[in-house]
């Protein structure tokens, strides 16, 4: 096998990331040397490679599905929103600037304005991303690429480098994924195709239905009609499965009350359930840090935005954010800052991670991110923070609570710890902990030791499970994605598509005119 595929979608959140990961895991189980690729990603959830490059967490997860180490080649352009009007651009793993919407983003209406850069700059990036893709294709048998948003954003097509732009540039066949659980999937498939140019349509091989509930035989007449209208087949119907949205891309889309991550059905080892409340701060980044807590039997994790929602929490987490000063102001405006101070005074556990750690400190000097200058923190930890222009991107290892810990750091804030008990790179005072280390809770021994401390401080009779392995659970999730492809997609046809490209002679569908 020597080829590639672009997994596009009718909309954002159609399931492109998990389908890409599933195809990658299916291929690697067939002995194929495969790699993931996303030319341009927009996400507040990022990861640091062993080479010190920052990429989207979704691509790091997809690399794990391929059983390879992630690299900057797999996500050459990463946009990290700093608000509705600006994003930090990370190119080949390194930040290169902050871009305003008026000056740099494609501007005249349409969906996903933050997912494309302004025309001139975008065109200059096309050569870079095609070079990265070519390097991966030289090194691997197959490269499975993920698109962004929808390829039918016709106002942005001229400067697109992540959907049909990369498909045309690298001659990749395109599989369009649609979320049938939302409804309107047939119209979405047909409309997506009809809005594309003839040259783009030639690369769209067919469709993949995602998140189907019910009897597939009831869907088949519609699939036959879709084939008659478009001349393109459906490569599979994937059933709805709970718990497969791993390493979500977009922290801006987290529902303040709907994004409840609960642990597995297994009961707690001790007598009590441990409740974790995560403050859903603006521009929340790497909220995936709490996934490891939710994986523990007997631990329930929820996102909150009101002080009364902290009252029954055994642990409150203040997570990372791309807007530390803005998040601090938000906590104060909503009364959460005062609730956190009361918790600390009562000896009830609080954990700050990255931006959350900085918020818990004495003060922040920020002339980089918010340019707010001197800002008082919550003064729960003896820490002074100064924002540096150069971003810290590292993969630290260390020890805490008598256990080995691995993590990764992504931050501009430099913390000076003046007192307290050392805790990773941060500190602890009483039941308040703070660290810049993302991913530390994925270290099983450390997570269990930390939860024992939390349970003791909260007065809970809770004992973490001795056999919970976060890495093993992640592997199980990735295998479930591979199983979905293997069991519910036409893998023979998918194999031919990846190896040989889109079928020749596919009909052209004029915009607005059924076949």
UniProtKB/TrEMBL annotation:
<keyword id="KW-0169">Cobalamin biosynthesis</keyword>
<protein>
    <recommendedName>
        <fullName>Cobyric acid synthase</fullName>
    </recommendedName>
</protein>
<dbReference type="InterPro" id="IPR011698">
    <property type="entry name" value="GATase_3"/>
</dbReference>
<feature type="active site">
    <location>
        <position position="438"/>
    </location>
</feature>
<dbReference type="Pfam" id="PF07685">
    <property type="entry name" value="GATase_3"/>
</dbReference>
<feature type="active site" description="Nucleophile">
    <location>
        <position position="354"/>
    </location>
</feature>
<keyword id="KW-0315">Glutamine amidotransferase</keyword>
<feature type="domain" description="CobB/CobQ-like glutamine amidotransferase">
    <location>
        <begin position="275"/>
        <end position="444"/>
    </location>
</feature>
<dbReference type="InterPro" id="IPR002586">
    <property type="entry name" value="CobQ/CobB/MinD/ParA_Nub-bd_dom"/>
</dbReference>
<dbReference type="InterPro" id="IPR027417">
    <property type="entry name" value="P-loop_NTPase"/>
</dbReference>
<dbReference type="InterPro" id="IPR029062">
    <property type="entry name" value="Class_I_gatase-like"/>
</dbReference>
<dbReference type="InterPro" id="IPR033949">
    <property type="entry name" value="CobQ_GATase1"/>
</dbReference>
<dbReference type="InterPro" id="IPR047045">
    <property type="entry name" value="CobQ_N"/>
</dbReference>
<dbReference type="InterPro" id="IPR004459">
    <property type="entry name" value="CobQ_synth"/>
</dbReference>
<comment type="similarity">
    <text>Belongs to the CobB/CobQ family. CobQ subfamily.</text>
</comment>
<comment type="function">
    <text>Catalyzes amidations at positions B, D, E, and G on adenosylcobyrinic A,C-diamide. NH(2) groups are provided by glutamine, and one molecule of ATP is hydrogenolyzed for each amidation.</text>
</comment>
<feature type="domain" description="CobQ/CobB/MinD/ParA nucleotide binding">
    <location>
        <begin position="6"/>
        <end position="251"/>
    </location>
</feature>
<dbReference type="Pfam" id="PF01656">
    <property type="entry name" value="CbiA"/>
</dbReference>
<comment type="pathway">
    <text>Cofactor biosynthesis; adenosylcobalamin biosynthesis.</text>
</comment>
